[in-house]
C-alpha cells in the first residue's frame, strides 16, 4: 500500500504542475473550453485516486473545487482572475496536504471562497453525480473528432500546365493526419505514346484526420477545376463497434463493381480479389486499393483502441542514470576493443569491432536522448514566479516563452532552475519599472519578459530579455569604485563595466529588497553555469532593457575531448573551447624573456605551462605543444608535451574528496584502461588571474 | 538554396508587403512593376514562382500568365494571381490562362505564406 501511495503522490504532483500551467493559461484565455476541461480532469483524477489510496482529506477538499469547475464547464460560472486565484491557492493547498504540511483553516477558507462564488453550486448531491457522467464525455472530446476520408484524386491530363504539382498536394494531405496513398497506373500509355508533360497517374488516399472535411477540401482548392475529385467520409470516430467492411463491400461502395457480380463470384469460394480480377470485373490495382483501404481502417481502429497507456512508460530516474553509466562503460570497452583490433591487425576482428563501434554509438545516442527533457518543464515554474512576484511588487509583467520544446539533459535542466529564477527575479525587481514609471518613459505600462530557448551547435542558448530600465554603466562604475573593485580613474568600456556585475559581492540595487539584491548576485549564477560547462553573457541598453544569454551544453555525460600528455600522465581538454594547437620551441621561450607569452598570428597569447602547474617530474621535450583555448573572449594557451588526438570522453565524476580541486572537473577511462583527468580550463585560467 | 519568387504589382506598397513577408520566410524575392517589366527581369533570374496582380498598366496579369506559359522554362511554374473577392469571372479567366492559384486581397502575411507553401511544396 505504501508503494501505491507513493505512486499516487508522484502522479498527483505531476497533475498539480499541469493544473498550474492550465490555470495560468486559462487566466490569459478565459474562454478556452479545452483548458477548463483540463483543469476539471486534473481535479477529478486527484480526487478519484485520492479516495482510492486513502487520501480522504484530499479527496474531500478537491471535491468542492471540482464541483465549482464542473459549473465553470457548464458555463454557469465565468472564469475570472478571482476564480483563478482561488484555484491556484487550492492547488497549493492540495500540494501542502500531499506534503503533510497543510493548514486546515486555510483549506476551509479556500472552500468558503469557492462557495461564495456567484451562482453557487446547487450543493453536493448533483455535483457528486457529475463525475460519473463526465468520463465518457471527456473521452469523446479527446478522440471523437477523428474522421476517416477516402479521397479519389484523378487529375486531368493537362494538370501540369497550370503549374500544379500533385505531389505537393499529397504531401499537404499527409500533414493533416495519418494517410495511406495508393497510386493507380492504369492510365499510363505505351512508352512510345508517353508524353512527359501529361499527368497519367491518379491516386486514392485514405486519410485519418481530426481537421474536418473543410481542411481536406482546402487542400484541393486550386486544383478543383483540374481534376476529378471525390471525398467521402468513411468512418466517424474510433468508437464504431460494427464489423469492418469486407473487401466486396468496399469495392461496391466505390462503384468499382456491382453487388450482383460480387455475389456471383463469392459462390465460387476462392479468394475474392483474385476471382474478381479473373472475372475481369475489376483490375488488380483496384483490388489492391480496396485491400489497402481495409488494412488502413483496421490499423486506425487498432490505434484508437484504449491501451494508449503503452505509448509511454514511467521509469525511475536512477535507472536511467545507471543506464547512461553502463553505456559509458560500454563506450570505454569498445574503445579498448578497437585499439586491440588495430594493434593486432586482425581483419576479421577489425570487421567485428567496426560493427560494435557503430552499434555502441547508436546505443549511446538513444540512451542520451532518453534523458533529454523539453525545457518547458523549467519554464512552467517561472510563469508562476513572474505572476506572483509582479503582483507583490505592484508591477504588471507578461512572460513570453519560446522554444519550450528544446530538449536538454535532465541534469542540466535541474541545475538550471536556480540560475533562471535568480535572473528573472533581478529582471522583475530591478529591470521592469512600475507602470507609472513606464508610462512616464513612454513605454506600455505592461512590461514584457521574453525567454527563448534554441539550439546552437552542441549547445542550447537561453535568452532572457526584458524591456525594463536596463543597466546604467555609470552606476556600475560608481558602485565598483565605492566597493574598491575598480580604480576611480580606470578606463573601462561600457561592455567591460557590464561584465563587472558578475564579480562576487556586486549588487547595484539601491536598497536590498526581499526579492533580490541580497549580495548573492550574478556571480553565483555565473559559477553555477560554469559548473555545467556553460557560460553567461549580458547585454543591456539604458532605458531599453537587458538581455541575458545562457549557453548550455546539450548533455553532461559524454563530450568530445582532446587527449594530451605530460610525462606519463594523460589529460583531457574539452574540445568545445579548443581553438588551435601550435608548437612551442625553446627559442620561443627564450624570445619571451621569461614571460609566459606567445606570439600567435600577431597576437600575444598568454600560456600556462601545465607541467610546472601540476608539478609533473621530468624535463619537457625540446618542442612542446600549446593548445589554444578560447575562454570568455580571451585566448589562453595550455602547454603540454604531446597532443594525442580527439576522443569521445565519458565523464566520470570524482569522489567528493577531490571536490576542492577546481582545475579538474572529472575523469575518464581510456581505451587501454588508464585514467585521464579532465581539465576545467575556465578554472585553470581563473586560478591564473588570482595568482597574478 | 532558397527559392526565388517574383512579385508583380503596379502598387509599390503591395510589392513591398509581399517581398517583406516572403523574405522573412527565407525566400528570395524579385520585384516587377508590370507584366512587361516582369518578362524583362525574368530571363535567367532562376525564378521558381510568380505572384502577380491582374490589373496593371502596359501588360496586365492575364497577358503575363499567357506569355509565361508560352515560355518553355515557365510552362509548369506555379503562378498565383492576386484578386479582390468575388471576381468570379476573372478567376475562371486567369485559371484558363494557366494560373495555378489565387490569393484574395486584402490578405494577411500568413495567408500569403500558406499559399506559397501550398503551390511551391
From TrEMBL, chain A:
Offer one example of a GO biological process linked to this entry.
chemotaxis
InterPro entries, per the entry: Bact_Chemotaxis_CheA, CheA-like_dim, CheA-like_homodim_sf, CheW-like_dom_sf, CheW-lke_dom, HATPase_C_sf, HATPase_dom, His_kinase_dom
This chain's source organism reads Desulfatitalea alkaliphila
Cellular component annotations (GO), alphabetically ordered: cytoplasm
Give the EC class as a word. transferase
> What's its job?
Involved in the transmission of sensory signals from the chemoreceptors to the flagellar motors. CheA is autophosphorylated; it can transfer its phosphate group to either CheB or CheY.
List the protein's name.
Chemotaxis protein CheA
Keyword entries, A-Z: ATP-binding, Chemotaxis, Kinase, Nucleotide-binding, Phosphoprotein, Transferase, Two-component regulatory system
**Which reaction is catalysed here?**
ATP + protein L-histidine = ADP + protein N-phospho-L-histidine
Positions bearing Phosphohistidine: 44
Q: Enumerate the spans annotated as HPt domain.
A: 1-101
Q: Which SUPFAM superfamilies did the record assign?
A: ATPase domain of HSP90 chaperone/DNA topoisomerase II/histidine kinase, CheW-like, EspE N-terminal domain-like, Histidine-containing phosphotransfer domain, HPT domain, Homodimeric domain of signal transducing histidine kinase
User: One GO MF term, please?
Assistant: phosphorelay sensor kinase activity
Pfam families linked to this entry: CheW, H-kinase_dim, HATPase_c, Hpt
CheW-like domain location: 558-690
CDD domains, from UniProt? CheA_reg (cd00731), HATPase_CheA-like (cd16916), HPT (cd00088)
Reported EC number(s) for this entry are 2.7.13.3
- Please list the residue ranges annotated as the Histidine kinase domain: 352-556
Q: Which domain of life is it from?
A: Bacteria
- Record PANTHER family: CHEMOTAXIS PROTEIN CHEA (PTHR43395:SF10), SENSOR HISTIDINE KINASE CHEA (PTHR43395)
UniProtKB/TrEMBL annotation, chain B:
A Pfam family of the record is Response_reg
Q: What is this protein called?
A: Response regulator
Keywords assigned: Phosphoprotein
Q: Which domain of life is it from?
A: Bacteria
Q: Does the keyword Membrane apply?
A: no
What is any one GO biological process for this UniProt entry? phosphorelay signal transduction system
- InterPro entries reported in the protein's UniProt record: Bact_response_regulator (IPR050595), CheY-like_superfamily (IPR011006), Sig_transdc_resp-reg_receiver (IPR001789)
Positions carrying 4-aspartylphosphate are: 53
Question: Which residue ranges does the record assign to the Response regulatory domain?
Answer: 4-120
The keyword Hydrolase appears for this protein: no
Amino acid at each position: 500500500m505504501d508503494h501505491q501511495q507513493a505512486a499516487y503522490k508522484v502522479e498527483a504532483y505531476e497533475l498539480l504542475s499541469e493544473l498550474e500551467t492550465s490555470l495560468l493559461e486559462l487566466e490569459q484565455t478565459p474562454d478556452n473550453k479545452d483548458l477548463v476541461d483540463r483543469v476539471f480532469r486534473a481535479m477529478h483524477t486527484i480526487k478519484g485516486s485520492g479516495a482510492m489510496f486513502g487520501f480522504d482529506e484530499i479527496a474531500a477538499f478537491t471535491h468542492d473545487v471540482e464541483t465549482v469547475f464542473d459549473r465553470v464547464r457548464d458555463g454557469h460560472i465565468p472564469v475570472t482572475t478571482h476564480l483563478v486565484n482561488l484555484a491556484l491557492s487550492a492547488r497549493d493547498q492540495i500540494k501542502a496536504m500531499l506534503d503533510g504540511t497543510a493548514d486546515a483553516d486555510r483549506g476551509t477558507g479556500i472552500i468558503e471562497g469557492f462557495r461564495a462564488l456567484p451562482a453557487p453550486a446547487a450543493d453536493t448531491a448533483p455535483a457528486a453525480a457529475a463525475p460519473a457522467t463526465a468520463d465518457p464525455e471527456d473521452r469523446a472530446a479527446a478522440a471523437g473528432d477523428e474522421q476517416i476520408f477516402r479521397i479519389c484524386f484523378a487529375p486531368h491530363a493537362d494538370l501540369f500546365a497550370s503549374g500544379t504539382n500533385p505531389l505537393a498536394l499529397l504531401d499537404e494531405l499527409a500533414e493533416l493526419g495519418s494517410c495511406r496513398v495508393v497510386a493507380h497506373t492504369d492510365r499510363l500509355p505505351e512508352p512510345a505514346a508517353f508524353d512527359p508533360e501529361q499527368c497519367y497517374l491518379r491516386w486514392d488516399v485514405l486519410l485519418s484526420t481530426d481537421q474536418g472535411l473543410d481542411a481536406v477540401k482546402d487542400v484541393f482548392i486550386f486544383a478543383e477545376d483540374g481534376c476529378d475529385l471525390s471525398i467521402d467520409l468513411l468512418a466517424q470516430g474510433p468508437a464504431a463497434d460494427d464489423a469492418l467492411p469486407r473487401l466486396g463491400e468496399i469495392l461496391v461502395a466505390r462503384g468499382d463493381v456491382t453487388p450482383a457480380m460480387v455475389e456471383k463470384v463469392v459462390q465460387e469460394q476462392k479468394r475474392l480479389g483474385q476471382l474478381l480480377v479473373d472475372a475481369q470485373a475489376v483490375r488488380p490495382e483496384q483490388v489492391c486499393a480496396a485491400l489497402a483501404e481495409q488494412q488502413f481502417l483496421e490499423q486506425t481502429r487498432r490505434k484508437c483502441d484504449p491501451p494508449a497507456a503503452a505509448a509511454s512508460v514511467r521509469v525511475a530516474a536512477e535507472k536511467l542514470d545507471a543506464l547512461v553509466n553502463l553505456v559509458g562503460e560500454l563506450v570505454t570497452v569498445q574503445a579498448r576493443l578497437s585499439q586491440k583490433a588495430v594493434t593486432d591487425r586482425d581483419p576479421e576482428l577489425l570487421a567485428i569491432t567496426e560493427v560494435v563501434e557503430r552499434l555502441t554509438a547508436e546505443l549511446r545516442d538513444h540512451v542520451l536522448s532518453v534523458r533529454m527533457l523539453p525545457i518547458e518543464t523549467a519554464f512552467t515554474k517561472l510563469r508562476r514566479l513572474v505572476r506572483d512576484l509582479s503582483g507583490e511588487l505592484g508591477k504588471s509583467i507578461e512572460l513570453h516563452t519560446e522554444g519550450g520544446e528544446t530538449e536538454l539533459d535532465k541534469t542540466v535542466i535541474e541545475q538550471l532552475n536556480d540560475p533562471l529564477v535568480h535572473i528573472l527575479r533581478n529582471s522583475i525587481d530591478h529591470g521592469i519599472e512600475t507602470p507609472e514609471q513606464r508610462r512616464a518613459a513612454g513605454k506600455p505600462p505592461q512590461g514584457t519578459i521574453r525567454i527563448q530557448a534554441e539550439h546552437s551547435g552542441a549547445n542550447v542558448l537561453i535568452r532572457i530579455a526584458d524591456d525594463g530600465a536596463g543597466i546604467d554603466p555609470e552606476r556600475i562604475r560608481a558602485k565598483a569604485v565605492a566597493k574598491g573593485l575598480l580604480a576611480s580613474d580606470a578606463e573601462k568600456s561600457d561592455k567591460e563595466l557590464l561584465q563587472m556585475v558578475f564579480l562576487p559581492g556586486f549588487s547595484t540595487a539601491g536598497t536590498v529588497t526581499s526579492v533580490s539584491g541580497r549580495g548573492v548576485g550574478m556571480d553565483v549564477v555565473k559559477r553555477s553555469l560554469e559548473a555545467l560547462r556553460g557560460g553567461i553573457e549580458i547585454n543591456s541598453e539604458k532605458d531599453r532593457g537587458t538581455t541575458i544569454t545562457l549557453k548550455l551544453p546539450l548533455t553532461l555525460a559524454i563530450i568530445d575531448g582532446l587527449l594530451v600528455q605530460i610525462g606519463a600522465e594523460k589529460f583531457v581538454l574539452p574540445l568545445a573551447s579548443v581553438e588551435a594547437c601550435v608548437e612551442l620551441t625553446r627559442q620561443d621561450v627564450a624570445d619571451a624573456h621569461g614571460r609566459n607569452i606567445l606570439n600567435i598570428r600577431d597576437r600575444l597569447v598568454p600560456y600556462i605551462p601545465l607541467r610546472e602547474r601540476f608539478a609533473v617530474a621530468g624535463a619537457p621535450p625540446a618542442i612542446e605543444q600549446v593548445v589554444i583555448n578560447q575562454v570568455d573572449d580571451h585566448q589562453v594557451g595550455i602547454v603540454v608535451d604531446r597532443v594525442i588526438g580527439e576522443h569521445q570522453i565519458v565523464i566520470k565524476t570524482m569522489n567528493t574528496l577531490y571536490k576542492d580541486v577546481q582545475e579538474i572537473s572529472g575523469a575518464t577511462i581510456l581505451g587501454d584502461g588508464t585514467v585521464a583527468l579532465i581539465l576545467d580550463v575556465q578554472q585553470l585560467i581563473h586560478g591564473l588571474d588570482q595568482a597574478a | 538554396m532558397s527559392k526565388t519568387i517574383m512579385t508583380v504589382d503596379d502598387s509599390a506598397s503591395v510589392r513591398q508587403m509581399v517581398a517583406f513577408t516572403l523574405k522573412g520566410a527565407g525566400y528570395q524575392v524579385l520585384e516587377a512593376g508590370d507584366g512587361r517589366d516582369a518578362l524583362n527581369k525574368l530571363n535567367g533570374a532562376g525564378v521558381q514562382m510568380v505572384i502577380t496582380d491582374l490589373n496593371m498598366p502596359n501588360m496586365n496579369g492575364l497577358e503575363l500568365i499567357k506569355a509565361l506559359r508560352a515560355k518553355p522554362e515557365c510552362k509548369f511554374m506555379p503562378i498565383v494571381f492576386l484578386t479582390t473577392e468575388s471576381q468570379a469571372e476573372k478567376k475562371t479567366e486567369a485559371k484558363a490562362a494557366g494560373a495555378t492559384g489565387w490569393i484574395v486581397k486584402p490578405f494577411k502575411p500568413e495567408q500569403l505564406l500558406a499559399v506559397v507553401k501550398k503551390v511551391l511544396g
